[in-house]
Amino acid sequence: MKVLSIVGARPQFIKAAVVSRQMRRVGFDELLVHTGQHYDFGMSEVFFRELELPAPSHYLGIGSGRHGEQTARMLTGIEEVLLKEDPDIVVIYGDTNTTLAGALAPVKLHIPIAHVEAGLRSFNRRMPEEINRIVADHCSDLLFCPTETAVENLKKEGFHNLIGAADIDANRPSSIIHHQFQAPLVVNVGDVMLDLARQVKERLGGEGRGQTEILSRYGLQPHEYVLTTIHRASNTDEPENLRGILEAMRQIARRGLKVLFPVHPRTRKAMEKADLPALADTAGIILSEPVSYVAMIALESEARLLLTDSGGVQKEAYFFGVPCVVAREETEWTELVEIGWNRLVGAKTEAILEATEAILREDFTQKPRPDYYGAGHAAARIVNVLQWFVGR
Q: Which residues of the chain have pLDDT under 50?
């Protein structure tokens, strides 16, 4: 069975790592296509080494550019690879321009598509990611959802052929063999990011001082700092939003909590362009280059709280029982807001500070934490469905 997996951005390397490992474990012939959407070393090659992703069979080297230009170049490159390799199925991840091109190229060639992390919706079509994920879902034959909320979103859009996580034995592909296939098929498999986050957390614990050494690198003590990640265009391309977040960070640091801020390249450029670096140049704010995935898991899991506009970081905080302030106007992970683990506040300084202070006053050690994202077997379920689909 030949599978073509298409990745190109940091979140996709993370999701693909655990699925790729499972594919290789059962003997799939997987070819990895790296579009080069994220081409900075710290945002790309380091993940391949750290997460044990196989070297790309095809590297397109697309780089940055306007949405249309970037997607068009990806389409051309991916189509050439598809014509050469003729895979049984294409696997795409998430909601980037790589996802969009990875859906459009094979659907035009009538090659089946599986979309990992299907069904997410922010209901804000001004977000490029929202358009990408909608198009990808409606091009796909297999839609692998991380949550029941995602399944419900797809049902509202007219998808009706559904399999629940309870219907798939993670250890037996034959567990769904009698299911009557009708494309597109929506499957709640759980969240692959939970699979990997648990594996890395266990590895850090097994290394003894591994986690302690990562915190020591930045002069941090467990549960005495705020971890911040900001990269979305809605914040980086809007100087007032970026200013509001940086001012909130400055005031949090003044109130006694250290703030670690690994700065995304896009965010660093935006700060310089808007003449904002001075806001982060204050005692208590620690600026760093982007950190590796393993370091990020160590830092997230030991933080007092997180401040982020990342979709993945919102979930990872929850995986480890860490509350999160979300500097956005909407989120795909609405269930976490509904139960009070995440606070959706936007980019205004006052709103961020109010949410931060509310979190610091609350005892989260006793707060219920329902299992929305599966039991850490999403990759096994995905690979079992792929085996069944191609061999049916």
A: 174, 177
